[in-house]
Amino acid sequence: MATMAMGTANKKLSVICLAILTSLHTAHAGEWDFTPSLTLEENYTDNVELVDAGETESLVSQLGIDFSLDYLAQGAEFTFNSSSIYATYSHDHDLDDGFLELDTNGRFALWPNGIALVFSATVENQARNGARNALADIVSGDTVQTERYSGGFEYQIDNSDFQFFANATYNLNQADDDIGEQEGFSSQILTKNGNASRNVFWDFNANYLERTNNDQDSKRHIAELKLGWITNYKINPFIRAYNEDNTGNVGNNNSYESNSYGVGLRWLVTPRFYLDVSYNKPEDEQQNIDGEEQEEYVNAEVNWQPTSRTTLNASYGQRFYGESYSLDLTHRNKRLTNSIRYSEEVQVFTRDNYEYLPQGAFWCPIDFIESSECYVEPGDNFNFDDYNLVTFNDFEIIEDNEFSLNKRVAWTSELKLPRTTFSFDLNFNDRESLETRISDRNSGANFKIDRRVSGYSTVDLKLTYTEKLFDYQTENERTDRYRQYAINYKRDLNAKFNFNVTLAHVNRDSSQETFNYKESRVTLKFIKDF
Length: 530
What we know:
Blueprint: H1 2-27, E1 31-45, E2 58-73, E3 76-89, E4 97-109, E5 116-127, E6 143-158, E7 162-175, E8 182-193, E9 200-213, E10 216-229, E11 235-248, E12 256-270, E13 273-282, E14 297-307, E15 310-319, E16 322-332, E17 336-347, E18 354-365, E19 387-397, E20 404-416, E21 420-433, E22 439-452, E23 457-470, E24 478-494, E25 497-510, E26 517-529
């Protein structure tokens, strides 16, 4: 039950916060900003069960107690936001339950210019099964509480001679349904030469991640070193070494490796723009994911920072699965902010693994609406001319005890005008199982307009498109598309009291028609700060 899970999370949270706050109070003098608030939210939905026919109306009431705390001092910062919610459902009070949401993080310097303690904790309620309903929330139900905790130490030096950063962190992920849970240790080391270096340049990046889930475990390490000689010309030679290893007793106990070494040249186009190109040779008899011997390859990297507000990092190379790319572009000026990122990462123990479940073939009326109309009892007499044989299937979320390759794109853009803000987000993720080589694809786009109509009120319009594609390019392929439209009006009645009115509509269109639905909502939300 969510109430029991919320109690467990609250106990953990109380211990963590007490230790942190005691340390901050005794070691640092800083500014506190504490804001408790009371929230009342009323949601009317015309289709709370999210079905295509036989819709059920409901009034979902949520009473929440929120706490917001910010602390800032020299060498210490701490942010805490939590919300304890109790929801009631007019159509079925057996569903009434409590929920917890939390987002907190902080950094605490143990001594000046030295080691710092870092920590974070997140508790959220997300869709239990993205194949059943990717937009599930407290109103529609079918959510699961997930918790993520991390804590550790970091050390950083930044001067004209060199830059150095290192951290070591303990990580714990938990969920009410036990899916996606993991516990482990991660560390990172980054170092490169500073501007004062006159003879040698270097760039070293290493990551280590160790995770366990019951009797399953995985280890991953990635390290890249560039070590070069600074000449009197714009062309500087260097050597490159790359090492990657993904191992564990997950899946079929396969190991995925990419180990190579090579030589290259750095072309310093300008002091803020350089291009690295190297020729690399994999270790002898090293195989790729298809069992073929890895071949020699060219690695290239571009680093450009024309101004303090614009940066570009892009790379091309080879890993155990073939060609590999990365991109990180950020740009901002007085009104416009843009960020485009592309990354490729091997993951395990997530909540993104789904199993195809055929439910069988049934005789359904030609114009059937619900699957319940298709269950013909033995001995029933019916005219076959009025029925079609329809196959039903579903996807069930399961333990992610296998390595997967995730290729992600994220583009965010924001334009701020004096009274209006336009924002746009685009995301895409291709998750390929390295065991079965089957892919799931998730993509989405979000466009929002915020308009301040007066000194006390704002209006925003939000359009969202979400697409989830399961078992891509197989006979079991299924596509779910969600289109959301929402308009919100916010009014500040005084400095500590405001209310929101929201009208929203969602339309789900699935390649399996039994999952189609439409839902409209009207939401009133009152917030009182103290």
